[in-house]
Specification:
Structural class: mainly beta
Mean pLDDT: 80
Strand content: over 45%
Largest sheet: 6 strands, antiparallel, barrel
Radius of gyration: 15 Å
Shape: globular
């Protein structure tokens, strides 16, 4: 397990006063990170999801799929979140690394 940071959007303005999206630190949690391998990789490639990773964290009410994740200097966009077995103990979070670390002003 390794620590990863979760960021939420907050409204902001650029130097000319125009609205922009800013990302602010929300929470730092321990996460298990897995990449697709073997059969899962080839199945994902058929759906063009081969660059997906999965983060596993303890369930938290304050984490949602509008956030971004920073892990080891890489930024990930959350694609989907699953509440494992619907028992509010673990999140399985499917992510995709952003190109050049930039997504929506991050």
């Amino acid at each position: 397990m390794e620590a990863s940071n979760y960021f939420s959007q907050s409204p902001g303005k650029d130097e000319d006063g125009f609205p922009i999206i800013q990302w602010t630190d929300h929470v730092k949690v321990w996460a298990a990170i897995k990449t697709l391998k073997g059969k899962a990789f080839y199945e994902a490639a058929a759906d063009q999801l081969q660059d997906m990773k999965t983060f596993g964290i303890r369930y938290r009410k304050d984490v949602d799929d509008n956030m971004r994740i920073r892990h080891k200097d890489k930024i990930y966009k959350i694609i989907s979140m699953n509440n494992d077995d619907e028992n509010n103990q673990w999140w399985t979070i499917h992510v995709r690394e952003t190109k050049d670390g930039v997504v929506d002003g991050f």
